Description:
This protein has helices spanning 7-20, 102-116, 144-156, 174-188, 212-220, 237-241, 249-256, 260-320, 322-327; strands spanning 27-39, 42-48, 53-58, 71-82, 87-100, 134-139, 161-166, 193-198, 225-229, 244-245, 332-335, 338-339, 352-356, 359-363. With 370 residues, it is of the alpha/beta class.
Amino acid sequence: MLETITVTQFNGYIKKIFDAEELLHNISIVGEVFGVSNARQITYFSLKDENATLPCVCFYPAFSDQIKEGKQIVVTGSPNFYIKGGKLSFNVNRVEEIGAGKLFEEFLRLKEKLEGEGLFNNTHKLAIPENIKRIGVITSKDGAVIQDIKNVSWRRNPSVDIVLYPSKVQGREAEIEIAHAIEVMDRFADVDVIVVARGGGSLEDLSAYNTEIVARATYNCQKPIVSAVGHETDFTIIDFVSDLRAPTPSAAAELLTPQLSGQKADFIRLISRFNNAGRNYILTKDNIYYLKNNLVNTMNGYLNQKSYEMGLNENALTKLNPTALLKKGYAKVEQKGKSLSSKSMLDYNEKLEIIFTDGKISAQPIKEEK
């Protein structure tokens, strides 16, 4: 039986080789930065050229501002082999920036070209519908992105439909699949809005979304498009062309699906306002009915009072009406145009006029003989 060694022993031998090789200590390597992440003031990233990549770690926070996606830098340090994980990394103790990398330069050139053609103009951007019932999503069918969009959307509003058109999100010809998916969704899918989404990554990982074919497909789309590519700090060409940019796929789902509980609250408030308006209307009608009856009763009382007073006045006038007295058998006696109410007022030398209801007669007064 052949003599064996453990994994730990083997990895330990390799580490000793790296540690013992003086030529590998404090060397400088040039490359393009990609896959940057930070944890506890430690920066993890990789360097690459056209044919290879090298994982790196920098324990010096002062250099973190120089280690950015797409930058071409020179790092100085030494290789380290991690025994427990069996992984090689390059421990960086100095960083020098020498300019933007090739991918970033291509990004800037395409951005300038498309911006000059007007593809980023706000006048071309479509409004996002307010009442969205169906969302079309273009992303990988196997990734976490589609699940995040479903979970967020259905938690907020279970009635929203999610239609997936699967496509590559990186790698060879990914941009062709993405552009084709946009065209198909635009022409044939019954959706209110299209979301083009993928998770975060390096500038190289997101390169499919920094292509002219995807930019023009987005610009020509007749349905509103929301770009949700990468993390909040990632910007791609499709972000500038799309009608709305969401910082993450989950944020896109939140933007497009109003909270159903909020809609219920709005509906309840509307019902309450309707009930209050109806109640106020009824109270107003009742108040008007009460005022009307009160006015009628007041007017009737007033008219009855006036009618009674008029009756009294009429009776008084009737009693004072000389014609009425004449009808009762009385007659009016006048002499020389004056009414006589006493015998002492008689002038026996003048004739009297005795007035009845139907005429008058003349008479000569005669003195009584004593």
